[in-house]
Amino acid sequence: MTIQKKMNKEWWIRLALLTIGLIIAHLGVTLFVISNLGTDTFTVFASGVSHISKISIGLCHSGIQCILIILMILFTKGYIKTGSFVCCLLGGPIIDFFKWILEGFVSAQSPIVIRYVAMVAGCIILSIGMALVIESDAGTGPNDLVAVILTDKLKKFQFRTVRIACDLFFVIVGFALGGTVGVGTLVAAFLIGPVVQFFRPLHAKNIERILRKDKA
Fold it and tell me: How many structural domains compose the chain?
């Protein structure tokens, strides 16, 4: 097998792992959303911008992501990859699919204990999937890339610390602009970063093992 073919095969493996991570992550997002205990931190920011601009939350969410992609292409190198666009395109449909399956089991009318379990489980599952997406090295969604880039640039701060800081920034600015914050938002802000950091080295080892077997 030529070097070019090996590189192409590795790229497809990484993209496949990113897609698996994306599905896992958005299963977590769906559980978080249907628990009805607050939106994720980036959505709070988008809803705040929506409140000020009078543009729909969905358009604000997509618009901010597009702006982030443009800025990252212009001012950073190697962070925006094919997988970044895959994340942007597939996230919504995956969430809609899982909502169709799960919203009959958990909703705003469910007992509060079930809603809290769904919310915390959602944050953890989201973090596991996000860690796999990041370590796939095939690209990451632009809002998640903010913490990755800052961690690489600042160096002395661990990912979990930077991620918490980014999430709190989104929450504070979004709330100040008129976005809605729930208890789930605050749990997500403080839980996702540490859980992602915990799983990243585990995923990195497994991915390296998969690629090593493929090259053997």
Answer: 1
CA proximity to 148, closest of 137, 138, 163, 165: 163
Contact 123, 192 (CB under 8 A): yes
Are 23 and 12 in contact by the 8 Å Cβ rule? The answer is no
pLDDT tens-place string over residues 168-201: 999 999 999 998 889 999 999 999 999 999 999 9
Residue 52: domain span? 8-215
**Whole-number Å distance between alpha carbons of 129 and 137:** 13
Question: What predicted TM-score, i.e. pTM, was given to this entire model?
Answer: 0.88
Q: Considering the domain boundaries, does residue 1 fall inside one?
A: no
Q: Which helix (H) or strand (E) holds 166?
A: helix 159-176
Question: Which of 113, 110, 120, 93 has the alpha carbon at shortest distance from 32?
Answer: 120
